[in-house]
Amino acid sequence: MLKIKNLSFAVDNSGKKKEIIRNINLEIPDGQLYVITGPNGGGKSTLAKLIAGIEKPTSGEIWFNGENITEKSITERAKTGIGFAFQQPVRFKGLQVLDLIRLATGKNLNVSEACEYLSLVGLCAKEYIHREINSSLSGGELKRIEIATVLARGSMLTLFDEPEAGIDLWSFSNLIDVFKRQREEIKDRSILIISHQERILNIADKIIILKDGTIDKIGKKDEIYPELTGSASPVDMCRGIRKGGVN
Amino acid sequence: MDLNEIQINLLDNIIDGHNITEGAYNIRSDSKSIGRSSTKDVDIIPKSDGTGLDIFIKPGVKKASVHIPVIMTQSGLKETVYNDFYVGDGAQADIIAGCGINNCGCDDSEHDGVHRFFVGKNASITYSEKHYGDGNGVGKRILNPITEVYMEENSYVEMEMIQIKGVDDTKRTTVADLKEGAKLVVRERLMTHGDQNAVSVYTVNLNGRGSTADIVSRGVARDNSYQRLDLKIAGNAECKGHTECDSIIMDNGKILAIPALEANSTEASLVHEAAIGKIAGEQLIKLMTLGLTEGEAEEQIINGFLR
């Protein structure tokens, strides 16, 4: 289980402190798939990076499976069982897809074993397994390779930062199938997805709306979903915030 | 052929294994040939003045294999060796060279290998050259290879030039002249560390119509090491030339990349790309999210980059 206690994160913005995450408290139990959604700039990616150790909180604590991991490094958190799929995957000159999958599993997989992970995300494995992870790959291809490596890692808690970004419609359908399968086989693992996509929100056990660095709402999809798809368009939400006097 | 542990290690590093089981070969150790064999397709003949070898690959042969490694284990040894390769028209061959120096003494050890390739019409060769140094002496390990490639019509040469590690000082000079339809592909990998110094100079002349050259050099300069890369392509006809100089700089390393393109024909199409930078932070972070430490991530990135 992931527990976040009074978590805050601020950056220096031209000499002024700007709070990106504000006093968040959250629990993600084992065996659950949560989706975080909300307006751009609301702190979703930052929260995921804080959990993965890529950013360090200004204050608060992060606990994972009963252990305080707030001060742990990215590597230590990965070893503890936290996986992270980047919104914008990284390119590596020279490293091949096979290398990355082997590093993810920590095993010297043979080609056919590694290919299985690529097949999961709808890539013709033989075509890609020996490709360099460089600019010859499109954004969508890179994204699916990124997801394949994270699936290969098989972490106890896996964070996906906008997995749909840059993926074509056909691949997106395939991705939904991947997440559905992950959901069915979740057992004692948990998944946290940052997404704006209705079809991903649909498979969530719970949906969190993150706005202005705080949890605006959290609940089951039936409770949250109508609000998201109803009148609360981004413009309305913005008007609502103004009425509330935040701006 | 009896080899000691040092010799075996050097050969393992430069030709990926000390047992040469096929093709023609000459193994040079401390200025002497310790093993030589010709085949029906390849003749290896010592030069009459004792300065090196003439290697004849017969016209039309397919998949000929030639190994000519050089190893040095005596501190203070300095030599210049001239090897000439005559590749017959239409021949296909894989040539594996390389030099390994083990220096456990106080004096500098130096091997300067001058390789000339005369590549016949429609011939096709791959050439792999690895340089490696080890030993705990204070004497330097110095390698100054000169490679000259003369390519006839429609010939093809693919060269893999690798300096793995342990070479204190090197000046690598490569010159190529290409006739009509000839194609040259070069992949250079340079790793320097400590106080090492590496200079690599390429001069490629695309003289013939339809000739092409693709030169890619990747380097990693660590610690206080220095690399200078001069890559020049001259287009003297309707031709295509591409050079790419891509380097990772670490610690207090320094890299100077000097691209040069000279078009002497309006039909010449020449491109140069160059990039020097440290390892990108997001690359390290990505691998750390897979459970690698920062140091392990760095090694993986470098190993991949120099593959």
Descriptive notes:
The complex is a heterodimer of chains A (247) and B (307). By secondary structure, chain A is an alpha/beta fold. Chain A is built from ten helices and ten strands. Chain A has a six-stranded mixed sheet, with helices on both faces. Chain A has a four-stranded antiparallel sheet with strand order 2-1-4-5. The two termini of chain A are 36 Å apart. Mean pLDDT of chain A is 89; it is low at 241-247. Chain B has two domains: 1-167, no CATH class; 171-307, no CATH class. Chain B has 307 residues and is mostly beta strands. In chain B, a hairpin with a 5-residue loop joins strand 3 and strand 4. Chain B has helices at 5-15, 281-288, 294-305, and strands at 24-29, 32-37, 42-46, 52-57, 64-67, 70-72, 78-87, 92-102, 109-119, 124-134, 141-143, 146-151, 156-165, 169-178, 183-192, 197-206, 211-221, 226-235, 239-249, 254-263, 268-277. In chain B, helix 2 (281-288) packs across helix 3 (294-305). The longest helix of chain B has 12 residues, at 294-305. In chain B, the strands form two sheets. In chain B, strands 1, 2, 5, 6, 8, 10, 13, 15, 17, 19 and 21 form an eleven-stranded mixed sheet that branches. In chain B, strands 3, 4, 7, 9, 11, 12, 14, 16, 18 and 20 form a ten-stranded mixed sheet that branches. The chains are: A alpha/beta (247), B mainly beta (307).
Keywords:
heterodimer, A: 247 residues, alpha/beta, six-stranded mixed β-sheet, four-stranded antiparallel β-sheet, 10 helices, 10 strands, B: mainly beta, 2 domains, 57% strand
> What is the CA–CA distance across the termini of chain A?
36 Å
How much helix, percentage-wise, in residues of chain A? 25-40%
Count of helical segments of chain B? Answer: 3
CATH homologous superfamily designation of chain A: P-loop containing nucleotide triphosphate hydrolases
